[in-house]
Specification:
Layout: H1 2-93
Length: 97
């Protein structure tokens, strides 16, 4: 009978060890899955940052192009406005200040 109890105890211990081993395997698989998800998020974030940088560079280049295109026109427009003001002053006062 003592041998039977020892055998039952060993079976229970073996079952417990198998359960623990199974849980450890499950935890290792879960850690691997979470690690893969984190790597995916990091890759997505890097890709998004690269896209945003590209968009920012494109917008900056477009802004520079608009400035280069409009600046001469604005200078000419400013000169035109100054000339019109002087013309009105001469028309109203007979002289320009």
């Amino acid at each position: 009978m003592t041998l039977t109890l020892m055998a039952i105890g060993m079976v229970i211990m073996a079952g417990t060890l198998m359960l623990i081993a199974g849980l450890m395997i499950w935890m290792a698989i879960r850690v691997a899955k979470v690690s893969a998800e984190i790597e995916e998020l990091v890759t997505y974030t890097r890709t998004t940052v690269v896209r945003i940088d590209g968009i920012a560079r494109t917008v900056e280049a477009g802004t520079q192009l608009v400035r280069q295109t409009l600046t001469p026109s604005l200078v000419r427009f400013g000169a035109l406005v100054t000339g019109v003001k002087k013309g009105f002053e001469i028309f109203l006062n007979g002289t320009s200040s």
